[in-house]
Amino acid sequence: ITVGEGNSKRLVAYVVAELTEGLVHTLHSHISSKLPEYMIPTAFVRLDMLPLTPNGKLDRRALPKPDVDSFVSQGYEEPQGEIEYTLAGIWSELLKVERVGRNDNFFMLGGHSLLAVQMIEQLRRINMEMSVRTLFNTPTLSALAQSLNKSNATTEAPKNLITRDTTKITPELLPLIDLTQDDIDLIVDQ
Question: How many CB atoms are closer than 10 A to CB 126?
Fold first, then answer.
């Protein structure tokens, strides 16, 4: 069943099943092997019985919203570091999930391309740059944070070693390029 509105729509499976450990993972693994990605529910809500209307039809309004245990997670581990906490807050808000751990996957928590674009925009507002490709390549919180940390790190340019008093340019004075003295002499002569 599709729940939510607008960009927060997600596919939720309601399952009448015995309460067993790992049920959500088992269902997700089984369905993932049978269906294309876009048809895989982001949450699996276990029920003792389906709510019915007086006419015996499914009462959609009585279906509970997915809780934190309904989503496929990798076992909660608290985010570490400023970037992970920032991402966890953004994901929690966008995905309408109470808590996001460092091993959670953006797409398994209900993320999709529209939400990815919204996340990138929120990151841009706080001066962090990321591409959609980066998210698809590193969809877990900790891996994405590590990728963001590397791509947003500022690199200092080396100090300019050539001064007004320099009479000859040598390879040591050009730390950003690998030239021999012969190469430098040829350039200077031209």
Answer: 8
Q: What is the pLDDT of residues 51-89, one digit of tens each?
A: 999 999 999 999 998 887 777 766 778 999 999 999 999
Residues 6+ apart with CB under 8 A from 93: none
Instruction: Report helix angle 81-95 to 113-125, nearest 10.
Output: 130
Strand order in the sheet with 43-47: 2-3, 10-16, 43-47
Of the candidates 85, 93, 84, the residue with the CA atom closest to the CA atom of residue 111: 93
Q: Say what the pTM is.
A: 0.57
Buried b (16+ CB within 10 A) or exposed e, 144-158: bbebbeeeeeeeeee
Residue 153: is its pLDDT beyond 60? no
